[in-house]
Automatic annotation (TrEMBL), chain B:
Residues 45-101 form the 4Fe-4S Mo/W bis-MGD-type domain. SUPFAM superfamilies: ADC-like, Formate dehydrogenase/DMSO reductase, domains 1-3. The keyword 4Fe-4S applies. GO terms for cellular component: membrane. This is Nitrate reductase. CDD domains: MopB_CT_Nitrate-R-NapA-like, MopB_Nitrate-R-NapA-like. The keyword Iron-sulfur applies.
Length: 566, 739
């Protein structure tokens, strides 16, 4: 027997014949089948009484009727969320109810949860913070949207997203300092809280208000002028949230406790890198190099026309090819590119709209210039009747026009990020990097072309390239300096993200600097090395731009520990 | 012209597109049945109430049905437990049923460490019976044991207990309920004469002083906290807990006693109450025993000693005693902070003593109230046939055995005369080679059992391990030789009994995947293949079984023989025991009932008993080498135990940290140069694990808190037990931080 059990432990197939023989096989199959059939029969409706069959009004209203206003907002008013922090004990039902009652995707909810903690007034405090869209008086999502997919409803103040208008550029997610609009890959658009305004219109409470066991969330009527005055005083809604004077959010976090000083978000020290946005990395870096090449070419045509006569053809090809790949990859970033023809709708307020429109003008201008440059070459093959001399001034002017539009486009690119109010993307820091890439790209293109066409690199070109390189080194080194600061800031956090979480990519980036430096210097003596300069710079700038996106601190409401690693 | 314009509009998209396929994804529509607006894509054609299958609160969930199948849910508006509210788990209760890793067919592992392979039910049953029978033949009946759960319906618990003990001759069986409320069971039995939590949830609303001991109600039982929120008497809320929990933050007074100094603290409090004459002498004399001895016992717990042991000063203690004294309706509540302790039974009894001496029992808003953990822990307390004979009877009592045998129509000799081993004894029995075969149902010991590694090793030592579960992916299932695929909550009928003794109904409103069967049907199948189906012919359906259980409860304190069937339970919104036929008439007007209204306890003299003991040292005190106390417990309200189900919901996963963390006080973190959110190593005598440091002042210096939901946590915990209840002490072990 012991042997038998040992045998079984070893995992041999068990001989079931003995037992099967003892029993009537047919009846067993019947029992199994019978039980399986019974398992699939659902009869609850027939067996039990139907409750509330005739109810017309929502029966939950007795719990929430005091939590929504009894009248609609009048002039100068709008709806706003109010959260009574002293009642919220962190059950988080609001998040899941929003998900369920609104039929959202698997992990989607328009309410988020986080926590703040610390020692306030000598007392250890921790507080869950629930937040949805703050339905701002001056919504940054709305002003940033290139296609007008946002609307601030005139009667309720609800900031509504038009799902079929959205092109999925996700710029609103960057613009919103509370990280409210969330991108859904399968739909290719962002979606966000609409305060269940259709429920409110029927006298029903929004899902989150309905579901809070403590009645901590309510809808209030907000006096717009008062809110504006309060929001512009420079404070924020709650510890860990961005200052309110940017978008004038309307949510009111109420508490009798002192939760302002000494409290911080549970994820304040979370150094998880942000989204990489690969298509944007390619787009920004390639368009900037392309613009740089075209600018250097334009300036060259102006100041050293003879020298550039022979180089222009290659330089324009570089600019057109890189520029087109860059612009093409930006399309990959859009979740719903079909609606992108509407991008002009946002021109009045959106830097992204401006960027797209001006880039849209730049490329044709660049290609026009390129075709003028290549016309003589092509015309050699054409009938002599068609051979005509294009005046140099025309070519130079078109070169300068392309360069000018290019610079303007890069300026718009800069403003797209500056306008998101992030410490890592301030004017100085963004312009330094973007214009730096432009110059460095331009001079590396020139070295490359000189090496290719002339078989030697001009000393001035080499010096200019090295100067651009050193400028870029300086700009990027400055981004790491805040790590030494004793004061906590998002600049310091970005530096820490680079040095810790993005250590390997940062190392590569600085290695590429060294490689570019070596290539640049050596190419002065060994012109064949000049061919390596442009690829090295492209690689380096790609890495820099990756860090640009990943080391930024996402502006958002207080979060939870380890939340981002889900 | 208009036609042309309309045609053009169709071809040329508008500048602003207000409608379209993406917008219609989110359209809502009036839901009827009093639901308000619901998403258009899941509009119900009927609704029905089902009691939630996570915790012991026992909320009613209104299931939205379409063609008889569940398509969504909202908390039931009028269910007397939750009054229209639910916690995140309840809202997401249907989602785990849809998970990809559901066990859909029986599976056999031919080779240890090999893959599980799907087999037919017939082969599975043959394997089950032949292996267990062979083991029993070789090593005796007692060499096969089962470990069950507080998560299945009462009818199934009873069927399991009866099938295993009466049908299969199994002697030793226990449940994961040992981990959650065994302590309260023993405490109540000894103090009151029967395992009887005396309260109704309405008491949360009636009290003017609420004392919560070792209970983080806001997170563990959010809907009970909701009932406190509804209290109109502006109550004093007192929290006794080493941590400044969410509940402590929301309380009016917090007493952060040092871990496991409960007895010093509670006896010290009793002494202050006695010394100030803040006790109800007359009531004590009439309705209790052993008070004199108790008085002299607590005299030795001087203010100095209490302060030294618990960290609570004489002044603080006086304030607390005075608050209790001033209260007209004081209720005392405890949960796992008390139960999961090396001296939990005496601690629970120290709380019961406070209620008795101040006369705070049997009246609205009072009571010594244990809040249970699992959805059907209370069902298991009465009907698992493990710690007592079906229906709260005594295995050793021949009259009880005769009664049970008669009702079930079985041979009395099939009923064992003594208790079997407790959970920890079964695990040690496996190590000692006494237990060779184990049947684990709806629990995941390889994650949850204290000193996890020893449990896992035990599973490997078994000759044969059967896991019956909804999922084939739990840590324990990964070690099994045979998997039996079980239907889950809402895929079957049955009743749960919640913390306030309310019998609530679970209904089959979703189809179980593929060949999964309800535990009830699996037991039926086993009884057939084992050859004992004849014994269970009265157990034809869950409802027939329910009626048997009602009959078994007759004349017991838990008598619910007045409950005639499922429809009655459903129509009334649950029924609390006791419910004799004579009680039924009153239920329609008052469905909130508490025990001891007439001060009659269940000891033969109808008196309650003061029980007390000297405090004992924890099994693993801190030392120079291991200077920190490790506390474990619930992390968030979106997580349930080993997360077998809650981690299946993407929206619940958003609500808690993705990986394990430990809470540490800022002073300790600074001293050890730990940056917040960085990875650190925590070491106990049993294991070293890597965790994220969550630096927060909610734990006190020298203490660490770790949520139990992550599998790593129990690698550290130390296996010590309350001697009376055999409940594991999860709330204290010594650890060190290795930076």
């Amino acid at each position: 027997m012991a042997e038998m059990s040992k045998k079984m432990r070893a995992g041999d197939r068990i001989d079931t014949s003995v037992i099967s023989d003892l029993l009537d096989t047919n009846s067993e199959i019947t029992l199994i089948d019978q039980l399986l059939t019974e398992q699939r029969t659902l009869t609850a409706v027939e067996r039990f009484s139907q409750k509330h069959e005739d109810a017309t009004a929502p029966i939950q209203s007795k719990y929430y009727q005091d939590l929504i206003p009894i009248r609609k907002p009048s002039t100068g008013e709008q709806y706003g969320f109010e959260v009574d922090l002293d009642k919220c004990t962190g059950c988080k039902a609001c998040v899941v109810a929003c998900h369920s009652l609104n039929g959202l995707k698997e992990e989607e909810s328009w309410r988020d949860i986080g926590a703040i903690r610390g020692i306030a007034d000598g007392v250890a405090e921790q507080q869950t913070v629930t937040s949805a869209c703050h339905h701002c008086l001056d919504p940054a999502c709305l002003s940033g949207c290139p296609v007008g997919a946002y609307e601030k409803m005139p009667d309720t103040g609800v900031v509504r997203h038009l799902d079929d208008q959205c092109i999925g550029c996700q710029y609103c997610s960057l613009k919103c300092p509370y990280d409210v609009p969330k991108y859904d890959k399968s739909l290719g658009i962002v979606r966000k809280c609409d305060m269940c305004h259709e429920r409110l219109a029927e006298g029903e409470a929004p899902a989150c208000v309905q579901s809070c066991p403590s009645g901590a969330i309510s809808i209030q009527l907000i006096n717009v002028e008062e809110k504006k005055a309060e929001a512009t005083q420079g404070g924020s809604m709650i510890a860990g949230a961005f200052r309110s004077d940017y978008t004038l959010p309307t949510t009111n976090f109420r508490t009798k406790r002192k939760l302002t000083s000494g409290m911080e978000s549970a994820d304040e020290m979370d150094l998880t890198p942000a989204h990489g946005h690969s298509p944007l990395v390619w787009m920004l870096m390639l368009t900037q190099v392309a613009v740089g090449v075209s600018v250097i070419d334009g300036l060259g045509r102006l100041f050293a026309p003879e020298h550039f006569e022979s180089l222009s053809q290659v330089l324009t090809v570089i600019a057109v090819v890189l520029g087109n790949i860059g612009l093409g990859s930006s399309l990959l970033h859009l979740g719903s590119p079909l609606g992108a023809w509407r991008v002009f709708l946002g021109l009045k307020t959106s830097w992204l709209s401006r960027e797209i429109v001006i880039f849209g003008a730049w490329m044709p201008a660049l290609m026009l210039y390129a075709s003028l440059v290549w016309f003589p070459v092509c015309s050699n093959f054409l009938a002599s009747a068609l051979q005509l001399e294009i005046p140099t001034t025309v070519i130079t002017l078109s070169a300068l026009a392309a360069a000018g539009l290019g610079i303007l486009s890069v300026f718009c690119s800069i403003m797209v990020y500056v306008d998101t109010k992030r410490d890592f993307w301030t004017m100085k820091r963004t312009a330094g990097r973007f214009f730096g890439s432009m110059l460095l790209g331009g001079f590396s293109g020139l070295i490359f072309t000189e090496g290719l066409i002339n078989g030697e690199v001009a000393a001035t070109t080499g010096v200019a390239f090295l100067a651009a390189l050193l400028f870029k080194v300086f700009v990027e080194a400055c981004l790491l300096v805040p790590v030494r600061s004793k004061e906590w800031s998002y600049s310091k956090k970005s530096a820490l993200i680079q040095l810790r979480s993005l250590r390997s990519i940062l190392k590569l980036r600085w290695t590429s600097f060294a490689a570019a430096l070596i290539c640049g210097v050596v190419s002065l003596y060994m012109p064949s090395i000049a061919l390596l300069v442009l690829p090295t710079i492209l690689l380096g700038e790609w890495l820099e731009r990756r860090i640009f996106f990943q080391a930024v601190v996402t502006l958002k409401m207080p979060g939870e520990l380890n939340q981002s690693s889900h | 012209m208009a036609k042309i314009r309309a045609a053009l509009e169709k071809v040329i998209p508008p500048l602003q597109q207000w409608h379209g396929p993406k917008t219609s994804e989110l359209l809502r529509t009036p839901g009827k049945f009093g639901l308000g607006q619901v998403p258009e894509k899941c509009q119900p054609d009927a609704t029905t109430n089902v009691v939630c299958g996570f915790c012991s609160t026992g909320c009613g969930l209104n299931i939205h049905l379409k063609d008889g199948k569940a398509v969504g849910l909202t908390p039931s508006t009028d269910y007397p437990v939750n009054l229209g509210m639910a916690c995140p788990k309840g809202w997401e209760a249907l989602t785990p049923l849809e998970a990809d890793d559901r066990a859909t067919t029986p599976m056999i592992r031919k080779q240890r460490g090999g893959e599980l392979e799907p087999v037919s039910w017939e082969s599975a049953m043959s394997s089950f019976c032949s292996n267990f029978k062979n083991i029993q033949q070789e090593h005796g009946d007692e060499s096969v044991a089962f470990i069950s759960t507080g998560q299945i319906v009462t009818e199934e618990m009873a069927f399991l207990g009866a099938l295993a003990k009466f049908g299969m001759g199994i002697r030793h069986g226990d449940g994961n309920t040992r981990q959650c409320m065994a302590t309260s069971v023993v405490a109540y039995k000894q103090s009151f004469g029967f395992d009887a939590p005396p309260y109704t949830y309405q008491d949360f609303e009636e009290s003017d002083v609420i004392v919560l001991i070792g209970s983080n109600l806001c997170i563990a039982h959010p809907i009970m906290w909701q009932r406190i929120e509804r209290n109109k008497h502006n109550p004093e809320i007192i929290v006794v807990d080493p941590r400044k929990t969410e509940t402590a933050v929301a309380a009016t007074q917090h007493f952060p006693i040092l871990p496991k100094s409960d007895l010093y603290f509670l006896y010290g409090l009793a002494r202050v109450l006695i010394e100030n004459g803040w006790v109800d002498e007359q009531w004590i004399a009439q309705h209790t025993n052993e008070y004199e001895a108790f008085c002299s016992h607590v005299q030795t717990f001087t203010a100095e000693q209490v302060e030294q042991q618990s960290g609570i000063t004489a002044e603080q203690m006086l304030k607390l005693a005075e608050t209790i004294h001033r209260g007209e309706r004081v209720s005392f509540w405890w949960t796992m902070g008390v139960n999961q302790s090396h001296e939990g039974v005496r601690t629970a009894q120290a709380i019961i003593n406070l209620a008795l001496m101040t006369g705070n029992i049997g009246r609205p808003g009072t009571g010594a109230n244990s809040i249970t953990g699992q959805c059907n822990a209370m069902g298991s307390r009465l009907f698992s046939n493990t710690t007592n004979l079906l229906g709260g009877h005594d295995f050793a009592n021949s009259e009880h055995r005769a009664k049970v045998a008669k009702i079930l129509e079985i041979d009395e000799d099939r009923i064992p005369r003594e208790l079997g081993m407790a959970y920890d004894q079964i695990v040690e029995g496996i190590h000692a080679g006494k237990i060779k075969g184990l049947w684990v149902l709806a629990t995941n010991g390889s994650h949850s059992w204290i000193h996890q590694e020893r449990y896992k090793e035990a599973m490997e030592k078994l000759d044969y391990l059967v896991v019956q579960d909804m999922y084939s992916t739990t840590e324990t299932a990964q070690q099994a030789d045979l998997i039996l695929p079980a239907a889950g909550w809402a895929e079957k009928d049955g009743v749960f009994i919640n913390s306030e003794r309310r019998i609530g109904l679970v209904k089959k409103v979703a189809e179980a995947p593929a060949e999964a069967l309800s535990d009830f049907n699996i037991f039926k199948l086993i009884s057939h293949y084992w050859g004992c189906a004849e014994m269970f012919k009265k157990w034809s359906t869950p409802e027939a079984t329910f009626k048997l259980l009602a009959e078994l409860s007759q004349d017991q304190p838990c008598d619910f023989s007045g409950v005639t069937g499922y429809r009655m339970v459903d129509d009334l919104g649950g029924v609390q025991w006791p419910c004799k036929p004579s009680d039924v008439a009153g239920l329609a007007s008052d469905n909130q009932r508490r025990l001891f209204t007439y001060n009659l306890f269940y000891h033969t003299d109808s008196k309650a008993k003061f029980i007390f003991a000297e405090p004992t040292e924890v099994a693993e005190p801190t030392s120079k080498e291991y200077p920190f106390v490790l506390l474990t417990g619930r992390g968030t309200s979106a997580q349930w135990h080993t997360e077998t189900r809650t981690k299946k919901s993407a929206v619940l996963r958003k609500l808690y940290p993705a990986s394990i963390y430990i809470e540490i006080h800022p002073d300790d973190a600074e001293r050890l140069a730990i940056t917040p959110n960085s990875l650190i190593k925590v070491k106990s005598r049993r294991a070293t694990i890597e965790v994220t440091a969550s630096v927060t002042p909610s734990v006190f210096p020298g203490q660490l808190f770790m949520p139990m939901h992550y599998a790593k946590a129990n690698q550290l915990t130390q296996a010590s037990f309350d001697p009376y209840s055999r409940q594991p002490s999860y709330k204290f072990c010594a650890v060190e931080i290795v930076v």
